[in-house]
Amino acid sequence: MDCLFCRIIAGEIPADVVHTDDRSVAFRDINPQAPTHILVIPREHIESLDEATQRDESTLGHLLRVAARLANQEGLSESGYRTVINTGAGAGQSVFHLHLHVLGGRQMNWPPG
Q: Would you name the residues annotated as active-site residues?
């Protein structure tokens, strides 16, 4: 198992976990790009959004709901927050296990980069 996020899920690599349930795990990014930067990942290894199938639709929706709950728990509902899924190296995906970034606590610019 060489996937970093699968190893975090298995407890082989420590993480600052802020949420866990039967379908997802969320933890603080070790290289935050905003004052709040949380990664929400499925427990099942899905390489990227492109690899998700119709069978994964429920999981994808679950990840978004978890992201919203965590953003609200972090106090970001009033100021706003951004959710991002990078797909492919050209878009900035560096760990090839689907993950959703929750970013907030600072002004977000558009376009994002």
A: 99
